[in-house]
Amino acid sequence: MIIDSHCHLTYEPMSNALAETIKRANNDGVEYLLTISTEDKSYNNILKIIDYYQCVYGTYGIHPHEAKNHLNLKSKDIISRVKKNKKIIGIGETGLDFYYNYSDKNDQINCFLEHIYAAQNTQLPLIVHTRSAEEETLKILKEEKKKKNFKILIHCFTGSKKFAFDLLELDAYISASGVVTFKKSQELANTFKQIPNDRILVETDAPYLAPVPLRGKSNEPSYIIHTVQFLSKLKNMSYDFFAKQTTRNFFELFGKL
């Protein structure tokens, strides 16, 4: 069994052929999918999807790119939306993206903090996007962890080895996407080789970042098998053993589904 811990089923082209997309994933051993919220206006679509498809779960959160469009969002609003359905099992994706800076840095930070407060209050995992913001992300997570504990999942990790191990000291889980299979990602692969097996999740981030040998195509959850194959070889494990390990890790973080 494999769990795609991060995909965007509300995005095209998957949203135009959802039943077929999910069936292909199930046929390839992807038993559960977690579809991720990035903005408030698409949340109702997520609720419809998780109601209709038994194997799909969801989250609520605002991507850092969208922070500028959600300036008045508070933790109580996030908690209210999360409570709309028991199959909403995480908060995010949220975080900091100082690479593109589509939203002002301070707006991103304020939005990130509101999500953290919601995670602290609900004890649901916080799904973190971080790009070109390692120092700031780590500082905020450390400071808020001291105030009140919460669960952390770093999605689509592409950062430095030092950042990875600093995050592990905060008991964070770290998710690998198709990026780890890219030829230019040797340093990232070496980092994942050293990350403890019981702290790794896998994801597609579909429709983005299709793994080798499908790089350049629109990604979908069934393609996660290539990332699992790559990582299992990297870790010198069987495919089935590594798939089961990442599934156990998902359940440890999110609970039994």
Largest sheet report = 8 strands, parallel
Strand content: 15-25%
Report mean pLDDT, rounded to a whole number.
Answer: 97
- Report strand order across the widest sheet: 1-2-3-4-5-6-7-8
Secondary-structure class: alpha/beta
> What's the Cα radius of gyration?
17 Å
**Helix count, DSSP H or I runs of 4 or more residues:** 9
In one word, what is the shape? globular
Count of distinct strands: 8
Fraction of residues in helix: 40-55%
Give structural attributes.
17% strand, 257 residues, 40% helix
Question: Could you explain how this protein is built, in words?
Answer:
The chain is globular, with a radius of gyration of 17 Å. Helix 6 links the parallel strand 6 and strand 7 (173-176). It has nine helices and eight strands. With 257 residues, it is α/β, with parallel strands linked by helices. An eight-stranded parallel β-sheet has the order 1-2-3-4-5-6-7-8.
